[in-house]
């Protein structure tokens, strides 16, 4: 049981490096990339294994919407979101 707990702890530690909390500190994006929504889709895939749902969610970002949001293909690596 201790080995299983230690493995679970190691797995959770790996998630800390890739998990987006959705805090929106990375916004606004000058290109309109919906950064938290894109990362939410990644989280669904990486953390929960819900790949099909993640793909559907991400595909919605590439469609025109009334909020002016888009997917990561619009990113120009300006770095504004990084701090």
- Sequence stretches where pLDDT stays below 50 over 5 or more residues: none
Largest sheet: none
The percentage of residues in β strands lies in under 5%
- Taken in chain order, the helices and strands follow as HHH
How many helical elements?
Answer: 3
On the 0 to 100 scale, the average pLDDT is 88
Rg from C-alpha positions? 15 Å
Question: What sort of overall outline do the alpha carbons produce when their principal axes are compared?
Answer: elongated
Determine the structural class based on helices, strands and strand pairing. mainly alpha
Number of strands: 0
First and last CA, distance: 41 Å
Kindly state the percentage of residues in helix: 40-55%
What does this structure look like?
- The radius of gyration is 15 Å and the shape is elongated.
- The longest helix is centred in the first third of the chain and has 15 residues, at 2-16.
- With 83 residues, the protein is mainly α.
- Helix 2 (35-46) packs antiparallel against helix 3.
- The protein has helices spanning 2-16, 35-46, 51-61.
- The N and C termini lie far apart (41 Å).
Question: How do you describe this structure in short?
Answer:
With 83 residues, the protein is mostly helical.
